[in-house]
Specification:
With about 425 residues, the chain is α/β, with parallel strands linked by helices. Helix content is about 45%, strand content about 15%. Strands 1, 2, 3, 4, 7, 12 and 13 form a 7-stranded mixed beta sheet that branches. It comes from Paeniglutamicibacter kerguelensis.
Length: about 425
């Protein structure tokens, strides 16, 4: 029987239904000023400074946030926002260092959050967003932001992964059909690698997103990383998937050195027409239009062991480290501004993600690029971000999973990752 993370499956199904219906009719910051700060950190004449740390989703991310901040500050002259950009490879390490130095960002865009909530570091959503803003989130996404019944995260984006394939390379290699199963993907990628000058399959197991690539394969065999109460990495179905990944590597079906390959440059290589198959995101479509519009490519569901539908679903969020609690009102001003329909829909559509709000969905109802990914959401498996041990598990995947490319047995790698997760309980 196909096994999914129950919460992820419920979130995906309900969110996809809501979006489809919409589309069919469908502490670290400082407070400056002459007066002492009040509950908002901004008494009369004072300016509250918010430190905001976010990752880069693509080439547009920095400019998009800078515009949001510029427009927000123009409308709220008592609040200043300092933006700090970090790569996905570095952001979690930088965050840990800031927390240890009592300089946690007032606003943070990330994935895992349960550990921070359990330690009492995060402000509840009701402290950092108005009732109207919170009510606008699709209930299924909002539910996935809760720990012990309290919502901490504000759902920022939703996404799913799909198989991108190079039509020209398939034709050159004599591959007629888009692969639906692992064996078909293996054979097709092998043919591309042998008969063209390009890599057959792009497998990024570097520390940018080894956990994402792994989850795609695990889900393709009915596996996952566990749930809110138990991290389950070292399981028979996950081991079978990891063994197959390692077979792809050993047989030369992937690009060179997958253990050190990051997702972003790997997808850039696909966009330049030099990889036959790779798992991409909604915004990959926009990157192709911008960087190589002549690329002959297609999008298909994830290849799984049996061909049954499954994919990785991702939901990132904005959260606020409460620090001394003095900046909640300023944070609330920013969150309410950002999640307003016009501002948010422009940001999320330009980034190429699926919206998490009802008003955003209405604004983006005509976006055709979202539809293939939206169709995959009901079969998506999500990370167990509400498990306090997820941060450690995520880090273990990023640092250890690449070892399957250096000869270490799949069984030993999963045991090592599981041990890291168990130690974090």
């Amino acid at each position: 029987m196909k096994k999914h993370n129950l919460r992820g499956a419920v979130v995906a199904g309900a969110a996809a239904a809501a979006l489809l219906l919409t589309s069919c009719g469908f502490g670290g910051g400082s407070t400056t000023g002459s007066a002492a700060s009040g509950s908002s950190g901004a008494a009369a004449g004072a300016v509250t400074t918010l430190d905001m740390m976010v990752p880069s989703y693509g080439d547009n991310t920095k400019a998009l946030w800078e515009k949001v901040i510029k427009d927000f500050e123009a409308a709220n002259q008592d609040v200043k926002v300092n933006l700090e950009m970090q790569s996905w490879e570095n952001i979690e390490g930088v965050l840990k260092t800031k927390i240890q130095g009592n300089k946690a960002p007032d606003i943070y865009n990330g994935g895992a959050f349960a550990e921070f909530a359990a330690e009492g570091l995060l402000a509840p959503a009701t402290d950092i967003a108005s009732e109207a803003t919170i009510a606008d989130f699709h209930p299924s996404f909002a539910e996935n932001e809760k720990v012990d019944g309290t919502q901490y995260g504000l759902p920022l984006i939703a996404s799913a992964r799909a198989l991108f394939y190079n039509k020209a390379l398939m034709k050159e290699a004599g591959v007629a059909d888009v692969p639906k199963t692992w064996d078909e993907l293996y054979n097709a990628a092998k043919a591309v690698g042998e008969k063209t000058k390009s890599a057959g399959y792009g497998m990024p197991l570097g520390n940018e997103e080894a956990q994402g690539e792994s989850m795609i394969w695990f889900a393709g065999n009915g596996g996952n990383f566990g749930n809110a109460t138990a991290i389950e990495v070292n399981t028979p179905v996950n081991l079978e998937a990891t063994d197959f990944m390692q077979k792809m590597i050993k047989d030369g079906v992937t690009q060179k050195d997958p253990g050190a390959t990051q997702r972003t440059p790997m997808l850039n290589t696909f966009i330049q027409g030099k990889i036959g198959f790779a798992y991409g995101l909604p915004q990959t479509i926009g990157q192709i239009k911008k960087e190589n519009p002549s690329l002959e490519y297609g999008i298909a569901p994830v290849a799984t062991k049996t061909g049954a539908p499954a994919t990785l679903g991702v939901a990132d969020r904005l959260m606020s480290f409460k620090n001394d609690g003095s900046k909640a009102a300023a944070v609330k001003k920013f969150m309410d501004y950002f999640f307003s329909a016009d501002v948010y829909s422009n940001w999320v559509s330009t980034e190429g993600f699926l919206p998490t709000t009802t008003s955003g969905s209405e604004k983006m109802a005509g976006d055709e690029t979202l539809k293939p990914f939206l169709a995959m959401l009901p079969d998506a498996v999500f990370y167990p971000t509400t498990n306090p041990a997820w941060n450690a598990t995520d880090g273990a995947f990023k640092s250890l999973m690449g070892q399957i490319a250096t000869g270490k047995s799949a069984a030993d790698v999963l045991k090592e990752i599981q041990a890291k997760a168990d130690a974090a309980k």
